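#random but structural
TW: two for the price of one
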Amino acid sequence: MGTQLHEIDFTDLSNNSLDLFTISNVNIGSKWLWIHFSAVYIVTIFICYQLYNEYKYISSERIAYFYSSKPQPHQFTILVRGIPVSVCSSVSESVETFFTEFHPTTYLSHMVVHRTSKLRNLINEAKTLSKRLLHLQSEPSQHTYRHIGLFGQRVDLVDHYGKKLVDIEQSVRLEQSNVSLAEETRAAFVSFKSRYGAAIAFHLPQSTNPTQWVTEQAPEPDDVYWPFFSSSFMRTWISKLVVIVACILLTILFLIPVVVVQGLTNLSQLETWLPFLKSILTITFFGQVITGYLPNLILQLFLKIVPPIMEFLSSIQGYISHSDIEKSACKKVLWFTIWNIFFATVFSGSVLSKVSIFLEPKNIPAKLAVAVPAQASFFIAYVVTSGWTSISSELFRIIPLIFSLVTRCCKNTDELEVPSLPYHRDIPKILFFGLLGITYFFLAPLILPFLLAYLCLAYIIFSNQFINVYMPKYETAGKFWPIVHNSMIFSLVLMHAIAIGIFTLKKLSIASTLLFPLPVLTLLFNAYCRKRFLPIFIAYPAEVLIKKDKEEASVPAMAEFYDKLVTAYRDPALMPIQYSVNSESLNRPLMSSADF
């Protein structure tokens, strides 16, 4: 209904028609802008209402899950680091003495962590060799005589692998003995007789020196990231600095493909960069493919490598569990996506020359108001190419299928591993589409049907994947929700900044003034949610712990649980393993329990 864009060249309507469906086409000072203003307030109130209800619901579900769960080792255990050791005692003796003295009624047992990186490499080698050997033994008709090396003699592979496996088993036994006796780290998993006792030890400082007897919650035994404990304190501290620098460098380097992609969306700029393509770009079909689909395809190819890189960086950052590593990687990927796909795309595509935006914070809303609507067509195409394509590939899982077939052929194994959902890959993607919906709903409403289609497909497909495809490797009881909540709050505040800039440019100063309280109220709402709900996601309340402990105090099965709790956090690399050369030794462990 607006006429603001009548000044554009309508002979090139195919490239500018989407602008007619944006707020840019509403006349300056038009009364229709008050509809956009009202929509900002209504949607903000609605989203905050939904966020509050979801936070409340998930918090209650988290408590309900805790009440309904059976006793779990991580509920009774904490991790203690920075253990001081005297000259005449070991780490194990120091832990025993300290907790027997200061927690006499609740302390149960402890398990000192050992450095087992070399041992894990040996066990992995033995595991791989055992699979090859079992595969050869299961197919007697297969030709098992081969030459070893380029000029080596011809040997029976079954006999050769069998002897090699025996040598590795002997090395494993020797290394396990050495590690058990000498390779202690100054860290231990300490278990208690009650959840409340573990919570007291976790929350209260254990020493007048805050760098000693440092406590944190223990993850589930299967969730522990054991390689972390093989690193010294100094190496871990340096790794954290390296990760920060690496994330910054990766963000800067990724600006290169973003700028290239934005160059592809602009035909005149592309003709300037690549003059030899001028004749091809004059053809309508090729021009639309290059400026519409190709930029998003290139961007997606580059984005594929980001989640694995962020997961690797998080793994060397000092986290003790796979779930913490994945949560950290999820945050990194999310903010990387917001910065490089949203901000870098917006400003490289429209105001790349205005480098001063970072030096003039007061002008950011106005510059966002100019830049963001101009990229509406790009982000609509992004939702189609990235969102619809990715959710379709999630259903068919062609790439994981091919990778699985290649792996099985190369490793000569028929074993299948049930996959788990890569949260650090999929959660940031969904949250980024949420950000696009929140920021563009009043700027370019045409994006909403495409987002709605994506979210409906995602709901159906991921429901199927959760039920029939994926198997969780760990349980965090909703600890990923605060990431979702914080992302939505950031999206709202960003939308408010853009709205203030838009109404200022449209000469509707009253609307701009009336919007100023909105981001402040949103941040106050976020602060209230953090005070009201976030503590439940950090630790369970004493009321819940004591009630659960009382309910289970008279349960006969608790005695058996405490017996298992003593060895629940033993490093898998120190456990007896059962690789064998033939069926007669299949059940013979490399080490007996008496060796520990």
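TW: number two ↓
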Amino acid sequence: GDSNIWRLETELPRDASVKYRYLICSVDPTSGNVHVRRFETHIVPRQVPIDLAEEEANGSKEKVQPKIDTLGDIDGNTKLDKGWLTTETIMQFKFFDNPFSVKERLKNRLLYVKITTMNLRINAESQNVSSLQEESLSNDTRENGTESMTTYSFTEVTSLRNPSACYEQQSQFGCPYHKDDFLIYNVTVAEPENVAYLVDLYTYSSKSKEDEPPYHLGYHYILPNFLKKSEGILELPVTCASKHRPLGMMRIEYLKVTPLLPSRCTLERSYIRYWNKRWTGLDVGHRGSGTSFKASDGNVIRENTIASLKKAVAHGADMVEFDVQLSKDLVPVIYHDFDIYVSLKRKTTLETNDMLELPMRELTVEQLRTLKVYHVVEGRNREAKFFDEDLEEHQPFPQLAEALDQIDPHCGFNIEIKWSQKLKNGRMESDLNFDSNLYVDCILRVVLEKAGQRRIVFSCFDADICTMLRLKQNLYPVMFLTLGVTSRYPSYHDPRCNSIEMAVRNAYATELLGIVAHTEDLLRDQTQVNLATERGLIIFCWGDDNNCKDTIKHLKSLGIHAIIYDKMDIFSDKAVKESVFLVGARDSQAALLQQINIENRYEQTNQHDFLNDKDVRISLNKSGSSADPVLSTSTPSI
């Protein structure tokens, strides 16, 4: 009815507590599959206690008033987050870098973009060939669509031009695209192979009155066969809505996010936006114990190896940061660069023709471990730096699964997903031939299977990979790595990575945990820290500037939640070389033992009171009736 209160009666076990969460879900009418739209993410879920019928047990006849819960709110703490994909797919369409090229007379007009889903599934019983032809020849691109053309879908849009950007349902005439804007449409569909997307453009006439709606300028249909890859760029003609002639062109970049199957996620727990207030100024070991191919002092361990990770842990790292990418046989391995050098033949000295540069992705994990492989720096300088391959823990290319198994579980992992991006000059960092959905799924499966209770944070410089990581699972948080304003590295094609301001807006809209900012940009303008924290986002920082005790101390004073730096053994000022998560686990264990002790004492007291009360009743019975049997013990029969 009109009430905003939902009720449910169900049977629950009386002798067990029942934990539960509320969620908003939609049900696909065709398949019956349940899709989670939003769900409660409090660390401690709601609970129906064991003593639900306590009043009844105590003989109370007063009717217990039902408790009314508020969705997302537990004791004033609101946690209601975007769901994850179960069987549905999200098609994301992005409009940025001034994507419309229209006739001169329309160039200064504000264009409104609307995306509508169209069902391509042909129902033989209700449609024949002639009716389909009539439909396709219709002069109207949207308004005359029949009921049979509607499809199960949700369309949400956000503009990163807005500092408080968040996804909302699109309005009747879509969302305006302003100059240098960044529009993102998320369209959730159940059967992507049977859905087309109608892109409508609206604008206001120069002669329109104040209360007059915009008129339909042009349109284009995006068919599913255009969207077979996980990402791509579409250059599409715009057809005039009234004369059906070419009006101009538009460029749309798309991303397809498919569910991780089989799904391993439940409502039991979720850390996607959880960060304890005590976790501030954390020390994070960069590639374990630091970058080993830039150092000149020689006192280093090979980066991104089990030995390097263990050394950082031994010197008190709260977390270790490392890079993960896939081998040719789809095994997640820990390595930073996209390329490697392979020795063509064994010699004691290295000559120019001794090495071949290859993309790392072209070798299987077995080949990476058995061939004589050199780091890019070693290969380009023709000078080997490490001769410790005979030591197992110093081997390059450890598998992600090995790190999860072998590193102290109280040390958190900041897992950076390596993915080649397009630079602003149009070049790719590396020509990856992996499908991005497959790539992310292979890494997620290992983490979800092996992580256990370890604190995990994912990060990536690619905003689309961050979106995938966030939408494919509901357990681990994701942070957006940002380049920011820098003189040290080339800018990316995607503007979301090129400034802290844009990174914050994207992270906030996508409901990520936060951003990993470049310290060079943070030190240029320290007020940028507030851009993240005022939005409730967590902020880490990375960069060569962090390799200085004074800088680390200063960054901690700014309220940075974690600092990623080299050489934990030199730059860490920790008196006790322990992870904050180990200390937290010990405190939790002590609190748990204390609680158990209190409960035990409480039970013993109640037992003592009960026995005394029984003794009194037995004594009264004895004095009241000589026929009562004499009990040899005061212990009650059970």
